[in-house]
Amino acid sequence: MQLYVLDRNFTVLGIIDNYECLMWKRNYYKSSIFSMQIIPTFEQFELLKKGNILLKNDNTKEAMYIDHRELEENEDGEEVLLVEGYSLTQWIDRRITLYKQLEKGNAETVIRNYINTNCIDTKDINRKLPNLIQGVNNNLGQEVDYNSHYKPLLQEIESIATTNELGYKIDLDLPNKQYIFEVYKGLDRTVNQNLNSKAIFSTEFENVIKQKYVDSDNNYRNMVLVAGAGEDENRKTLTLGIENEGLNRYELFVDARDISDKESKTRIVTDELTGEEIEETYEVEIPIETYNKLLEARGNDKLSEYTKIETFDCVISNTNNLIYRTDYDLGDKVSIINKKWGLMLNERIVSITETYDEEGLNIDIEIGNNIPTLIEKIKRKMRR
Q: Alpha-carbon distance 332 to 350, whole Å?
């Protein structure tokens, strides 16, 4: 697999094809990552600078940028370079939701509005991400009300996308020298539908080399109390999942004081001294029905982080009956069956790891709910 190296202005700087190992992990709900190990020449060391962009020659839309480099000697005295980085969506993490931004609409439209306000059509021109444009809006996802203020933008996009089972990406448009923000939803390829070709992974079909199954409730919550603006008995609250009872009830508290119950409006007034018309900003209280929808959105968002975990981690044989990117791809819902264990899971492919080494290409897919890492759990507690 050859890698093209580009700068941010879309200029092709060179080609890398003699790496020892390349791991290219595509994620559905979060930024993708890559890691490459190479014994470099001086020219290659100069090519693989932080900020430069990598493209695989089999897909010139899907890009990663270099974020980290390490150079050290191995046991044979050779200098080995480790290069790591992210997909271009990680650029969004360089922005926060700077303004009080209340958005209503389907999930894709809400996501795109946040991207537009904070990365494209920005009030401060210095916040604009150069050459970033919007792709076609397909109006995916459920209707949501979402309010954000001084939050990491990428974290907010990931929350909305995960709750609505949507993926997002930034594609490279080389001919037009643009970066295109896209929202998408994988196809349903499970055994329970007839619209698309079915993708069934099973040791019986000899397209699975290795499996790991996880079924866990240690991260699970199904009832949430969301507390918003106000103090003590005047604090506005909303409860979801109250129908759960007894040992089947797993409670969660969410402090949503950051969701303001007021919104800014503007009006034209006459200056008493000059007589000129000026624009004045003032605040009005958000109707309780609208505010409850904001609390509900926050509650559902948090509950989506505390689902029951059921996942299959599979090493796939890419030489048998299912062809990668043709019969299945990132975000698709597929069926995985293990008759020996009496298990069948119809879930989304949430990550695909491509590993290229001297033996060729190995594919590892994760189907089902993501298992939160320790760092993600710590961040979650900080956001709660």
A: 8
Q: 54, 34 in Cβ contact below 8 A?
A: yes
Whose CA is closest to 48, among 95, 81, 72?
81
- List, for residues 201-215, the tens digit of each pLDDT value: 887 777 877 778 888
pLDDT at 378: 42
Structure confidence at residue 377 (pLDDT): 45
| Rounded-to-integer distance, Cα 166 and Cα 141, Å | 7
Give the dihedral sign, CA 167/168/172/175.
positive
Burial category of 22 from C-beta neighbours within 10 Å (exposed 0-12, middle 13-18, buried 19 and up) = buried
Q: Is the dihedral of CA 258, 260, 265, 270 positive or negative?
A: negative
Report how far Cα 269 is from the mean position of its chain's Cα atoms. Answer: 44
d(CA 339, CA 344): 8
CA dist., res. 185 & res. 187, Å (int): 7
8 Å CB contact between 60 and 15: no
**pTM (two decimals):** 0.80
- Which segments in the chain show pLDDT lower than 70? 318-320, 370-384
Query: What local confidence, expressed as pLDDT, does residue 371 receive?
Result: 53
- Phi, psi of 12, rounded to the nearest 5 degrees: -75, 120
β pairing state of 333-338 and 200-202: parallel
Where are the alpha helices (H) located in the chain, listed in sequence order? 42-47, 107-115, 153-163, 288-304, 374-383
Predicted pLDDT at 370 = 59
> Rounded to an integer, what is the distance from CA 156 to the centroid of its chain?
10
pLDDT at position 305 = 83
At position 150, the amino acid (one-letter code) is: Y
Tokens of 24: 């290219």
CA within 13 Å, CB half, 231: 0
Distance CA 333, CA 195 (A): 12
Q: In this predicted structure, what is the pLDDT of residue 309?
A: 81
